[in-house]
Fold this protein.
Amino acid sequence: MVSELLGQADVQGRDPRRWSLAPVRLYLLARVEAVERSPEFGASAGAAAGRVAAERRRRAVLAAIRAEPIDVPRLPSAELERRAVRHRHLLGARGPGGVAAGAMVRWQVGYLRHALSRYETLLDALHGDTGRAEAERLLRHRLYEAIAAAYPHLAHECRRRMAVER
């Protein structure tokens, strides 16, 4: 922002109090004050402050997602299948009477993923696009890892979904 609004430094050299190869750039006070009074400065400063706040929110949400324990409901196999089929029918996906090979595993992961959708409230602190895609990917990855840990027979489907979503 400084180089954009002030341009070249009035004086450039080495800091005599510190040994460093980085040059010190100094600007005349009158130039700095004039730029601070300009509308461009207010717009740039406001935008910079907004970016800093958005980055802080993004980091806080990612930290919350990493720290949040994920509690996958533990169900007997028959009950999980029943709920997965019911969930599939509630979504309006009615098909032929039989279940294709591998479909039940996909349905079970889909049901469990839906059952864990309450964790998406962790994303509520993100406004607009700032880090939202990254946070959503991290959350889905953690949810699929938790499902795979709770139901080892679903691990392959969880890994497949993580790979597709990357």
